[in-house]
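Saturday, quiet lab. Running sequence design on the structure tokens for the scaffold JK sent over.
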């Protein structure tokens, strides 16, 4: 059964800031990649995708995880591929980490979806709509609060 996990960002967490949120996404992607999963990061736009790719390069060399932007890198890509609205993963991926601010229509291509409930009211409402969509698609749903103090 497919699964969707929503991470709820709390005001007091490091992830409440944009940079803290991006760093958390890098952490999650690395966590899944270390478990041999092929991960797709769905960013809102190309600027965000490039910013996220840069964060991967800033990791300590002992913690570095190979990644590539869609259309770059080896033929079948790395464990982590970074894309944005309007592009598709270049190879089969099991997990999508969705950072886009709009409803997704591609989630059914993945066995696991990671999504977020941000602090912004409008974005929170859109996240609720995505939650309903995943439920209608038969995904097993769970929520996790991100409450790491600043």
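Result came back. Writing it out in full:
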């Amino acid at each position: 059964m497919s699964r969707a996990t929503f991470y709820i960002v709390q005001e007091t967490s490091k992830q409440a800031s944009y940079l803290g949120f991006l760093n958390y996404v890098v952490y999650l992607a690395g966590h899944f990649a270390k478990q041999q999963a092929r991960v797709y990061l769905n960013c809102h736009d190309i600027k965000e995708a490039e910013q996220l790719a840069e964060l991967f390069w800033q990791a300590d060399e002992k913690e570095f995880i190979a990644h590539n932007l869609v259309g770059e890198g080896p033929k079948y890509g790395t464990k982590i591929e970074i894309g944005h609205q309007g592009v598709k993963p270049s190879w089969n991926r099991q997990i999508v980490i969705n950072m886009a601010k709009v409803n997704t229509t591609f989630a059914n291509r993945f066995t696991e979806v990671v999504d977020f409930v941000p602090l912004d009211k409008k974005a929170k409402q859109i996240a609720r709509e995505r939650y309903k969509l995943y439920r209608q698609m038969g995904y097993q749903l769970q929520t996790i609060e991100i409450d790491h103090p600043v």
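Notes for JK: The first strand starts at residue 3 and ends at 9. The two ends are 35 Å apart (CA to CA). Ask whether to fix the surface positions before the next round.
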